[in-house]
Amino acid sequence: MKKIPLGTTDITLSRMGLGTWAIGGGPAWNGDLDRQICIDTILEAHRCGINLIDTAPGYNFGNSEVIVGQALKKLPREQVVVETKCGIVWERKGSLFNKVGDRQLYKNLSPESIREEVAASLQRLGIDYIDIYMTHWQSVPPFFTPIAETVAVLNELKSEGKIRAIGAANVDADHIREYLQYGELDIIQAKYSILDRAMENELLPLCRDNGIVVQVYSPLEQGLLTGTITRDYVPGG
Known about the structure:
The chain is of the alpha/beta class. It has one domain: TIM Barrel. It is built from six helices and twelve strands. Strands 3-4-5-9-10-11-12 form a seven-stranded parallel sheet, covered by helices on one side. The chain has a three-stranded antiparallel sheet with strand order 6-8-7, with no helix packed on it. Helix 1 packs across helix 2 (63-72) and helix 4 (147-159) crosses helix 5. The protein is globular, with a radius of gyration of 17 Å.
């Protein structure tokens, strides 16, 4: 597996990462998956040379992080790059986001919320530091937090040794410029596939010019580009 450096950090990433949204299970995925199969999938990814494991509290209300944490117990910690996120909450208020099942998710990137989130993620993952900590979705009114305040607390967490690198997901070019104004931005995460190439226009050149790693999600459009979905497929609901 080819590896690349993560910005100016001492972290090295595998070119391919393992996303664990589906592993979290829950209403978004028509129920929970077999936990042992999920753990074995993470272990097999590591055996194949994948060291980047991506998760988030918003993946079934922390369940994905718990499963990743169980797999981490079976792996050398220094051989895994753990990436998780902040900014999507359910136990405190914020700007309305998605409703999953009968539970409401909110956007909240306030310093207070981020500190509570990082503590909860560390506990669920069973680790004492997070390699890459990423804002999941950017702040919007009415519970709006300026990027300057969000970056300030992320920089504090980095100084405290709780996180090693800072990332931002679902950003536009103006977001990136503002992150860079207040600190380092090591990596972004954005949707990209041969069917959705919008980020080529501005995001990719901007990241290239500033040494920011670009991590894409849904490159296979959740199975659409794998050939497993036939022309006569009709989505449920």
